[in-house]
């Protein structure tokens, strides 16, 4: 299948994914009653408007508070598109208020509103908040695919053929300078940066857990900027973009963060386009022009319907003056934005954010795509349209992209451009080999199974343990104990009450072995990871009710593996949940998720599961062989509490 056919196939798959996503939204929001949506957590109702104010970039912000279902889990988070509606009887409501969530803390939500003013009905009470469907991302992905498909005899076509076709990657030997590396970089990091600087078209940095991928990428970007003056830096998520923007800024680089301020962390807000416009030397003049425009316009609109020729002409002149003032303000803002774009060194945005109108027509010599192992292929093409060279960084052996359509995932959408490229051009890829996170025994199985046994634990971590009386790895086997899994009839999520009880008892025992005072003093952190949401909820209840855990509860995170990607904890406890007579492991079969879970641990990894069920899968059978060979294995019957 040539590159054009591959892209046409991907186009059909992203349409399938859009349909699945929209259907999910329809089922969860549009077709459900207000009461059902509130129960599901896709709606907050009722809420009260606490205040409204002008925030960064003169954007209108509202702060709302839910007054019911205070402990109910919900789907709202930073960056989500939402709509505010009124349920007040007899109040005419022309349309809802749309916006983006800045953040949610406890039962308070802060939203940046799309628009300059609020309708009167918003002050009448009976308000609610719904999540919205993200149409824009699909539109931009489909547009990018069409552009790449029709590209001929240009740089986009060349990159397309290198990544998907039969063209070979080139090394630009003519203008590569002698490289001087920072002393913080190890040899594998230096090799990766050399590949980045040398390539004429594409390069791939494969960063296994804890190997300093972000450090490597930041150094590579800084060295590229020395040659090219400006680069485009992207990633699939706002969190990943913000991390890079902050790290680049710490290097003294002039960073411009493109994107909705509501989707940006507080630390990165000062780098946003809105904030940088407000800091510009010509901003005072811009603000004055807008103020005068509003004054003239509001005066003109105060004229009543019954006025004569003279008043009509005066109103007409004032509206014309307001229009001219608006044109002047728009031109000045255009100048300020261009000035900011010309003088910044790193433009940072999400993959979809690289289609921002501010960047229209702008080209870059190099575009960087971080977390490329989690990036949908159609989204990756959006920044590629703007670049001569593309540098991918990620790990396709950790979490894949989130896809709602099983059909699309199985038909190829789950395979990223990073995976395709690294397979096609292994000579343009460099794997980082020294990891700075895990004890070598925690690292070993993952290294052998996923990374060709090429990972090396740095001396600073290879023997680091929680305490002298602790081993780095434990596997507690629940086979034969009757810990049967169950399934929630409504959500279909699975849970295992006996295993959850064991998880909490094991954690309590560990805390007591270390000592609460020592745990506090050292500030040890813990993550409890389990694959199913129902099990997460059950363990949270048990942990919250534990008197032993209460003093250090804030140091314990409990969630599915997705919430832990890119993070680390001193201790990780994994509960596998699955325990059945058929040997079914469900989506534990996606072993990349288990790779992520295991490699979050720095000093201690505890795994709890049923060997009789898990052992039916070759990966878990190998894991069981490993823990037995290393004497990390114990039956639950050997545990004492």
TrEMBL record:
Q: Does the keyword ATP-binding apply?
A: yes
Pfam families the UniProt entry points to: AAA_11, AAA_12
UniProt-listed InterPro entries = AAA+_ATPase (IPR003593), Coronavir_polyprotein_1ab (IPR050534), DNA2/NAM7-like_C (IPR041679), DNA2/NAM7_AAA_11 (IPR041677), P-loop_NTPase (IPR027417), SF1_C_Upf1 (IPR047187)
The UniProt keyword set, sorted, is:
ATP-binding, Helicase, Hydrolase, Nucleotide-binding
Domain (AAA+ ATPase): give its ranges.
199-505
> One cellular component GO annotation, for this chain's record?
chromosome
Tree of life domain: Bacteria
The GO terms describing molecular function are:
5'-3' DNA helicase activity; ATP binding; hydrolase activity
PANTHER family cross-referenced by the UniProt entry: DNA-BINDING PROTEIN SMUBP-2 (PTHR43788:SF8), DNA2/NAM7 HELICASE FAMILY MEMBER (PTHR43788)
Into which family does the record put it?
Belongs to the DNA2/NAM7 helicase family.
Q: What name goes with this protein?
A: IGHMBP2 family helicase
Organism from which the protein derives: Pseudochryseolinea flava
